[in-house]
Amino acid sequence: MNIQDIRKQFPILDQEVNGNPLVYLDSSATSQKPLQVIEAVDKYYREINSNVHRGVHTLGTRATDAYEGAREKIRKFINAKSTQEVIFTRGTTTSINTVAASYAAANLKEGDEIVITYMEHHSNIIPWQQVAKRTGAQLKYIPLQEDGTLSLDDVRATITTNTKIVSVMQVSNVLGVINPVKEIAQIAHEHGAIMVVDGAQSAPHMKIDVQDLDCDFLAFSGHKMCGPTGIGVLYGKKHLLENMEPIEFGGEMIDFVHLYESTWKELPWKFEAGTPIIAGAVGLGAAIDFLNEVGLDNIAEHEHKLAAYALEKMAAVEGMAIYGSLDAAKRAGLITFNINDVHPHDVATVLDAEGIAVRAGHHCAQPLMRWLKVSATARASFYLYNTEEDIDKLVEGLVKTKEYFSDVF
Ligand code: 7TS
């Protein structure tokens, strides 16, 4: 599919915002949805809608097939060994919270360590803080290099034989760096720890093979990868999931319920209490079909080119501070920046008047903001539907922003 064919798949892009054609550069927050996904969800509600795993009636069977069919698509997408290892959740946040509240709460004791990094998203910090408080374990941070990358020497120096859990994002939603999670998993395993990967910013953009990475858990969100909001995935190795207790209890997840005791269904359903997110899963399955049709390698290459182009164009604007490595080879498709002393919210507001959507704020990474010594930044993030023209418009908008604020002061 060429870029124009891809863009045609995203009806939302074909509109004006504030009198200008929309330039959507906020896909790291959430991606837009292709027709295939919109139509799959529409068709599900028009023709299939029923609850799953219960009645024997025909629609119930169709809904169950659609829901479980989506699970198989996801299994294949991340190369998990079995669909028993693929649990549907609300998204990355719920997936990481599940590992913390179930695996970590049961396996950590005083003196044990959880290791994360300074660049993590809040959803890969706070669940570990909470479980550290409950268990007496200690939370430790792998430091960052000056350019915001991780060094394996620092990883080795931080992980010890007391480390039980290492949890690291594969791609940073602020710095755009790609972390060597496969190598970190190996170091974690050498010390007897398990490896959790936050794949929120990687699963939408690059091929992930959980067997090759040898991660123990992987968390990601459907809405950042062309799927609907409200659906995500927790992958876990079967032997770990089998020994974990569910964190939610109720319908769907039980085998027998006695008056004072109950037993659980087998994997993956013991972790899916209540009526699941059926339409969301069907939509995510359609998103995966779409991403496979375009090809993850093509998507990664396209974004990589865009990031290199944007880095060059943006760095040429005087007064621009770009965070993270300036080496395009080390980056994924997003660029976080500040311009002169203009507050990033003002940058985003001026750009919005031009129809350009970027995010401004702390990006749910306050420890990283403190490390960068800024309170907030602006961020442009790219996906398969963005073009060099989008970046040219962004750069024009940034030059305008600078001029506008130099008039004010
Ligand atoms: N981990 C990373 C690396 C993220 O970028 C995000 C969301 C999450 C976890 C949480 O995902 P959720 O789907 O459960 O909310 N990141 C962003 C962002 O950068 N801007 O808006 C949301």
UniProtKB/TrEMBL annotation:
Known catalytic reactions: (sulfur carrier)-H + L-cysteine = (sulfur carrier)-SH + L-alanine
The protein's role, per its UniProt record: Catalyzes the removal of elemental sulfur and selenium atoms from L-cysteine, L-cystine, L-selenocysteine, and L-selenocystine to produce L-alanine.
Co-factor requirement: pyridoxal 5'-phosphate
Entry-linked SUPFAM superfamilies: PLP-dependent transferases
Domain of life: Bacteria
InterPro entries, sorted: Aminotrans_V_dom (IPR000192), Aminotrans_V_PyrdxlP_BS (IPR020578), Cys_dSase_SufS (IPR010970), Cysteine_dSase (IPR016454), PyrdxlP-dep_Trfase (IPR015424), PyrdxlP-dep_Trfase_major (IPR015421), PyrdxlP-dep_Trfase_small (IPR015422)
PANTHER family cross-referenced by the UniProt entry: CYSTEINE DESULFURASE (PTHR43586), CYSTEINE DESULFURASE 1, CHLOROPLASTIC (PTHR43586:SF8)
Protein name: Cysteine desulfurase
Molecular functions per Gene Ontology: cysteine desulfurase activity; pyridoxal phosphate binding
GO biological process, alphabetically ordered: cysteine metabolic process
Domain Aminotransferase class V, residue spans: 23-394
Keywords annotated in UniProt: Pyridoxal phosphate, Transferase
Known EC number: 2.8.1.7
UniProt family annotation: Belongs to the class-V pyridoxal-phosphate-dependent aminotransferase family. Csd subfamily.
